[in-house]
Amino acid sequence: MANLMKAVPNPESNSSAPLADPEVVAIARRRQFSRSDRRRILAAADRCSEPGEIGALLRREGIYSSQLATWRKQRAADAVSGLDSRKRGPKADPTIVEGHRTAKLTRQIDRLRRQLTQARMIIDVQKKVSALLALQPVDDLDGES
């Protein structure tokens, strides 16, 4: 039993070095590769000709062979957009999107109609003021009585 006991440092010892925090806080994040990284890795995999070179490449880059195979399929399907990052989450329903677009355009049309009505009323008032001022004698327009 004595062999199983670990030596515990004495808290009263005169050590000047602060104790390091042994706990490591891990933040899990999904690794994301940019389009250029994917192209670079695929080009490097295409250049591999010797047995074991692709395995070494995968270990060096920290990816799985299935990921490489997926990227190759995407590249074959579409040379440019197949390697683009894709938005995750539920896809938007086209009918709902079109409904939102229609509602937005309808609101814009209503706003523009109100502005047009207001502009027409202002123009009518300006015409009436102009007609009234044209009826007055020129002396009254100068402000001299």
The number of helical runs is: 5
What is the H/E order? HHHHH
Distance between the termini: 121 Å
Level of helix content? Answer: 55-70%
Number of strands: 0
Shape field: elongated
% residues in beta strands: under 5%
Q: What is the mean predicted local confidence, pLDDT? A: 80
Structural class of the secondary structure composition?
mainly alpha
State Rg.
38 Å
Residue ranges: pLDDT <50 for 5 or more in a row?
A: none
Largest sheet: none
Please give a structural write-up.
It is a single chain. With 145 residues, the chain is an all-alpha fold. Among the domains are: 49 residues, no CATH class; 44 residues. It is built from five helices and no strands. The longest helix is centred in the last third of the chain and has 42 residues. The termini are far apart.
Short recap of the structure:
The protein is mainly α and 145 residues long.
Overview features:
145 residues, mainly alpha
SSE order and pairing:
Blueprint: H1 35-47, H2 53-61, H3 65-77, H4 94-135, H5 138-141
